[in-house]
Structure formats: structure tokens, C-alpha cells
Design brief:
The chain is an alpha/beta fold. The protein has helices spanning 3-8, 23-32, 60-73, 85-97, 111-123, 156-163, 182-192, 197-215, 224-231, 245-248, 252-255, 284-301, 305-308, 311-320, 325-329, 336-351, and strands spanning 50-57, 78-81, 102-105, 128-131, 146-149, 173-180. It has a 6-stranded parallel β-sheet with strand order 1-6-5-2-4-3, with helices on both faces. Helix 7 packs antiparallel against helix 8 (197-215). It starts with a helix and ends with a helix.
């Protein structure tokens, strides 16, 4: 709302609300709305159930391997934030190849496709969403157990909003930032491209705060939770949080050696299907029928095939050959929504 609109309405009481705003932003809001000595109410910014960790890498290949390893071993649903549409598509594809149900989400998808990914994630039929900043607004899924960032954040404000989607049920959740120092140079380049001097200066201020946050722990002793709280104008009474890598050290998975059987990028060729331990070999004829069915459904819905169902779920169906709705719901990758939407068709294929 503009000051002109407020004047036209006879200057009624104005309430300005925002999820996260550091003190300079709060002042800017009041200034732009021409508020005269407004009452400011600020909630707390400490999220003690979020375990924060940051790790820097020298090259993309090592970073991507570590990220893939982390997501594969993580528990529960989660979100990976990336910078570009292409990275979202590629990482989601890599995760599906590695046996993790994942969908990309970015502004390049149609509104219908984005809605389908969001609904699938909320319903529990997809474990991971690989997203640009386009994903998350309005998401209220209390059991998100982790949020990872594959690039340095443009600002602490954006970073805090994105990690804030984890652990809303109050249970512990892991928030990991994996970045290359070269990411800082890219951010600096984008800032220099900004034409407006005031906005460019604000961009540099955000850049330096984000860089200090990412580099904390490299010989420095600045608790990450404390940095976030102080950024938003809150001074914690405690000095160490007991829930970040600066205070308690790096998590074990960051220290462990990454052992992956294949390079992260394996495009253009079909990866072999891995049958989980203890599961019988799949019926090849049924697997071929399921793939043909998935392809037809994907074409009809105009979505990528793995959004309908990923390869590992098809393999599990061809291995376990469910004969009833109850057995179908016991197949890995088949949630309540997929059972309702595709159950009859799948069971018909299994029964022949």
C-alpha cells in the first residue's frame, strides 16, 4: 500500500506485517508508509531445535557428492535450495537415480506443475523437493526434518526464512549450508550489476553479513544461532547454543568419507535399477508394463515421468506384486495419495 492510498482513505490505522525483517528493513517499511513513531512488536528469532552447520568446498564436484550423500542418508522429508532452474532439475534427477524420491520446483514450471509438486510433497508422496527460492511461501508442513542450501545465501533474511520451514513441529531438524568460496565472487558480480546506487549499497551490506555467517567457524568463534538473532536485533542471554557446528563441532556425516558408486552427473544414459536388500528380483515383464503405463500417464498430464512415479517405486511394485489396496500401500514410495489416484490402474497391471 502506498502513502497516497493511505491519505486517500483518510489515514486509517495502518498495520504492517512481515515474517522476518532486520532493524534497517523495519525502519525502511515505516519510512515508506510514512508512519509517525509506530509501535513495533518483534517476536523471538531463536529456533533452538534447528541444528545449523556450514561447510565450504573448493570445487563443485566434491560439494555435489557431499550434498547427494547427505540427502540420501537423511531422515524424513526435506528441501534443497539451489540457485538455478537447471541445478534444480539436475539434482532432482540425480536423487531419483540414487533411489530418493525427489521433484524439482522452480519458476520455469507451469503453475499446474508447481501445484502438483507442492501437493505431492505435502501429501508425503515425495520425500525431497529441490527448489529455487520460488518454493516455500505458504508451505505449512510441520514434519520437514531438514533443509539444505547448495549455494551461499544472498542474505541472512532469506536464509532464515528458508531454514524456518524445517522443524515446525518443535522436533529437531538439520539445516546445512554447503558452499564454494567462488559463490561469493558470483554474488559480488550480481551486486555490481545493480544500477540503483542505494540498492547496490544495501546489496553489499547483505553480502558482507552473509559472508561472515558462512565463514564463521573457520578459525572464528561466533555461534551461528547467535549471529542470526543479533542480525534481527535480538541479543540472546546465552553465549553458545549447543546446536550449531561452531559450538559443538561438525556433524559426523560431514567428517565421513563420501563413497558413491558413480559420478553425480550421469545424464543421457539409463542408470541400472537397484533392488533393495531383502526384496525379490522384479518381474521384468511387469516392470516394462509399469514403465509404459507411467509414460502414458506422464504424457497425458504433461509432466516428467518421475513426477508420476520414480524408477525405484516401479521396481518395488514389480518385485512385491501387490494384489490388494492394503498390500499396495505397503510398497515403498506409494503414499496415500498415489494409492488413491493410481491404485486401481496399478493393481490391474499387476493382476494381468
Amino acid at each position: 500500500m502506498s502513502p497516497a492510498a493511505i491519505k486517500a482513505m483518510g489515514r486509517p490505522p495502518v498495520l504492517a506485517l512481515t515474517a522476518t525483517a532486520a532493524p534497517p528493513v523495519r525502519k525502511q517499511i515505516a519510512h515508506r508508509l510514512e508512519m509517525d513513531d509506530p509501535a513495533v512488536v518483534v517476536g523471538g528469532f531463536d529456533r533452538p531445535n534447528l541444528n545449523l552447520a556450514v561447510f565450504a568446498f573448493a570445487d563443485d564436484d566434491t560439494k555435489n557428492r557431499r550434498l547427494l550423500s547427505h540427502v540420501r542418508s537423511s531422515r524424513g522429508p526435506g528441501i534443497v535450495y539451489v540457485a538455478t532452474h537447471r541445478h534444480a532439475e539436475e539434482l532432482a534427477s540425480d536423487l531419483n537415480t540414487a533411489g530418493v524420491s525427489a521433484h524439482p520446483y522452480h519458476a520455469g514450471l507451469s503453475a499446474k506443475q508447481r501445484r502438483e509438486v507442492q501437493d505431492t510433497f505435502l501429501a508425503g508422496d515425495c520425500r525431497v523437493v529441490v527448489a529455487t527460492i520460488a518454493f516455500g511461501m505458504g508451505i505449512d508442513k510441520p514434519d520437514i526434518r531438514w533443509v539444505s542450501h547448495a549455494e551461499a545465501p544472498a542474505s541472512i533474511d532469506a536464509y532464515y526464512q528458508e531454514i524456518g520451514r524445517a522443524g515446525r513441529d518443535g522436533e529437531p531438524a538439520d539445516c546445512v549450508l554447503l558452499w564454494r568460496k567462488a559463490d561469493s565472487a558470483l554474488l559480488a558480480h550480481f551486486i555490481n550489476e545493480v544500477q540503483d546506487p542505494e540498492e547496490r549499497e544495501r546489496g553489499w551490506q547483505r553480502y558482507h553479513v552473509s559472508k561472515r555467517f558462512a565463514q564463521a567457524g573457520e578459525g572464528a568463534a561466533f555461534c551461528r544461532h547467535r549471529q542470526i538473532c543479533r542480525h534481527f536485533g535480538e541479543t540472546p542471554k546465552w553465549e553458545t547454543c549447543g546446536a550449531c557446528d561452531v559450538c559443538i563441532g561438525q556433524p559426523d556425516w560431514l567428517k565421513a568419507e563420501v563413497k558413491l558408486s558413480a559420478p553425480v552427473r550421469t545424464r543421457k544414459t539409463s542408470a541400472p535399477i537397484v533392488v533393495p536388500a531383502g526384496m525379490p528380483a522384479p518381474d521384468e515383464g511387469l516392470l516394462a508394463s509399469l514403465r509404459a503405463w507411467r509414460s502414458a500417464v506422464a504424457k497425458q498430464k504433461r509432466v516428467p515421468a518421475f513426477i508420476v512415479m520414480n524408477d525405484n517405486t516401479l521396481t518395488a511394485l514389480a518385485s512385491l506384486r501387490p494384489r490388494s489396496e492394503g498390500e499396495l500401500r505397503g510398497v515403498p514410495g506409494i503414499g496415500e495419495k498415489k494409492a488413491q489416484v493410481y491404485g486401481e490402474e496399478i493393481l490391474a497391471l499387476v493382476r494381468g
